[in-house]
Amino acid sequence: MPFICDDINWRYVDEEDQYDKSRYVVVRKLHITLNTGPWQVLELSQFTPDEIRRRLRKFGDIESIDMLSSIEADVTFVCDRNAYLAQLQQDYDIQIRRQRPFRIRPADTWNQPQDVSTEPIDESVQTSEIFNLNEDCLLYLFRFLDLDSQVHLSEVCKLFAQLLHKHCFPRVRYFSVENDGHNIQMPLAKMRRTLRCIGAHITDLKYTCNIYNDVQSMMRFVEVLAQFVGPNLRRAQFLNSLICMGKQISTLAPILRNLESLEIYDSLHDCYDDIDFEEICPNLTELKLKLNMRLEKCCKPWRQLQHLSVLSNEFLNTITFVDFLEQNPRLKTIEFDVFESDVKLGAIGKHLPMLEKLTMDSIDVSLGPWDFQHIAALQLTEINLMTLNYEHLSGFFDCLSTFTRLRKIDFHATRPLAEEDDEKDYERSLVNMVKSLPELEEFSLRSVSITEKTLLEFLRSAQQLKIIHTHWCLLKFSDILILDIVGILKCIRPNKNLLFYVDPADYICIRVTRNEDVKQYLSISSKCQHLGF
Fold first, then answer.
1. Pick the residue with more confidence: 17 or 336?
2. Would you say residue 12 has pLDDT above 60?
3. Which residues, 6 or more positions from 313, have their beta carbon under 8 angstroms from its beta carbon?
């Protein structure tokens, strides 16, 4: 819908309107005059191209500025719509009697830039060989480009834009923004241009924007997300972005309505304003919050919530936590800090009969094996115990042997490691525990020292084990130990591969892993999420 003139009237017309092109000209050039008299805003010395550009660039990109006199100039915009917006703003200012620096009107018809070049076309330059390829060939070539290149390519011509928007951009499901105050990987203009292409299609969003020194800039990023991300968004992560501060969460509310999973990590800042996440995201099945917030508004029945994580939340009191569990008995996964462990575990055992996965962080709290009596009746399949008291490991292993349906266990102790006796009580309990868990598939041990003998005995008993982690366990690997492990695996689980995650320092100068017979049964890796990979 271009902005046109007929030497008398200036107006917008529909592109399908039939009009005489000899009379109508598309307007991109405006004639501006310094506003003098009682409404004067700028001094005569301030009427410069730089000042004109600064005041008019908000309407769009400016192609050129021609100074005609000390109080007159012609401004040519890249797009006719930008010129129209500048004219529209002036009309509004006049209506409300607001001071304005310029008087704006379209330039004379004969001074408007030509929309179509009148120079002869050089066919040898105009036509490129790539346009001789059919659409299938072009799409095949597009597959070798990353997303940034595809976005830039969509601006080359209408053909490329049509193919990319129809066949390539709808396949993009994941979008990540990782910005901080020292490294802006995704500038605002780039994010806007990218989301304009893929925003309607993405289902997974990861957003990091910890530029805390510029709150206004952070808000502009959030506004772009709210403008271009479509209703297909199902999973969102907001990391170190102050998303719960100010108006950011309310700005994003329209795109969060259909979320199934929401994760917010912002443990460095306290949120004193409570937020009702159930009202903003009524379709959530998974909510992970790692921030300080009271969450009293969330303490009500949720329609679909099954997974809840409230780790590292110093503002959440025990009464609110227990009330939430009582109103949401369908929870299957819960993660929390063990302050007042006796009360919380008692509420879990009483109100969550369907619980399958349990994660507890017992930092600064003495969580003991005796607390597990409250949840002994639950049919847990996964348990993660973080920062445990090193002295109670034997008791923890004995307690977990009663949960016979466990498939995944993660242990993390707090005590600094030291060389001790080869045989320890908790090592015997560890071996006895695995004998009682016939369905165990993944086992993680962190900051718990074990010997080679204990490891081999553990593997003999864990016949269904698929993944094992040993981090900071004072366990040094050698070719002999690896061959012993492979020998056990051959006997108890033929044709099954065990994935072993170890510390890089424990896995040095090992050659036997190059053997094809070893690779068939054992895969060793030093890249693990526990180590930050």
1. 336
2. no
3. 289, 290, 291, 292, 293, 295, 337
Please give the distance of CA 195 from its chain centroid, rounded to a whole number. 14
Instruction: Go through the domains of the chain in sequence order and give each one's CATH number.
Output: 3-111 (3.30.70.330), 381-533 (3.80.10.10)
Cβ count near 496 (within 10 Å): 13
Q: Is the pLDDT of residue 273 over 60?
A: yes
For residue 78 the two structure tokens come to 């890249």
10-12-13 Cα angle (round to 5): 120
Comparing CA positions, the residue from 159, 248, 153 lying closest to residue 194 is 153
Q: What Rg value do the Cα atoms of the chain yield, rounded?
A: 33
d(CA 74, CA 350): 77
Task: Give me the percent of the chain exceeding a pLDDT of 70.
Answer: 88
Residue 420 — very low, low, confident or very high, per pLDDT cuts 50/70/90? low
Q: What's the pTM value of the predicted model, to 2 decimals?
A: 0.70
- Tell me what pLDDT residue 413 has: 87
DSSP 101: S
From residue 504, give the alpha-carbon distance in Å to each of 113, 284, 477, 480, 508.
66, 39, 10, 18, 7
Sign of the four-CA dihedral 498, 501, 506, 512: positive
Q: Is the pLDDT of residue 333 over 90?
A: yes
Q: Are 197 and 148 in contact (CB under 8 A)?
A: no
